[in-house]
Amino acid sequence: MNSVAIIPAAGLSRRMGEPKLLKPFEGEPLINHVLAAWLASGVQRVIVVVREDNTNLREHLAQFDVDVAIADPPPAQMKDTVLAGIKYTAEHYPMGVNDAFLLAPADMPYLSPWLIDQVLEQHNPDAAAIIAPSFEGTKGHPALFPWPFVTGVYQLTDDQGINALWDLYYGRTFEVGDNTPLIDLDTPEDWQQE
Length: 194
Known about the structure:
By secondary structure, the protein is of the alpha/beta class. It has a single domain (3-193), classed as Spore Coat Polysaccharide Biosynthesis Protein SpsA, Chain A. It has helices at residues 30-39, 55-61, 78-92, 113-122, 150-155, 165-168, 188-193, and strands at residues 3-8, 24-25, 28-29, 45-51, 67-71, 100-103, 130-135, 138-139, 143-146, 171-175. The strands form three sheets. The chain has a five-stranded mixed β-sheet, with helices on both faces. Strand 2 (24-25) and strand 3 form a beta hairpin. It is globular.
């Protein structure tokens, strides 16, 4: 099975009020924590989707063994960023019916290779399903999407986000005992709590 991670990093951090991915978190830029988890996991390629005009982030990513997909024009919504990652994947990597892409926000500093690998292990191409970890009944990331489900992303309406795929296809969760790896930092309050 081939697997790629698509990391949407083309947002404007509106809820944070300032760019956050290069902001120091526990001694190093936030994005470094996230990339360390992905690069230590079992996924074969990590694709980070960035805005064309975000030269600081693009230059920072050059030190990592990741693919940088440029979203141009800047995406209006998260699903546009994900679509840019899907198109990049389709153009650069041979993906088949047994393969999958994984998706998680770029602002999850406690994401762990263990959790990513648990999601990968849950994938069964013969019983294709969207897979996500869950803590006390609440779905989290990373989410795994069988590659054939990418067609559904193209069918989403303007008012539908990626989470609508859960209703279009079969999805299942598995429970984790700790919500720490599922935490993302969206607002200044989130940041202060950590």
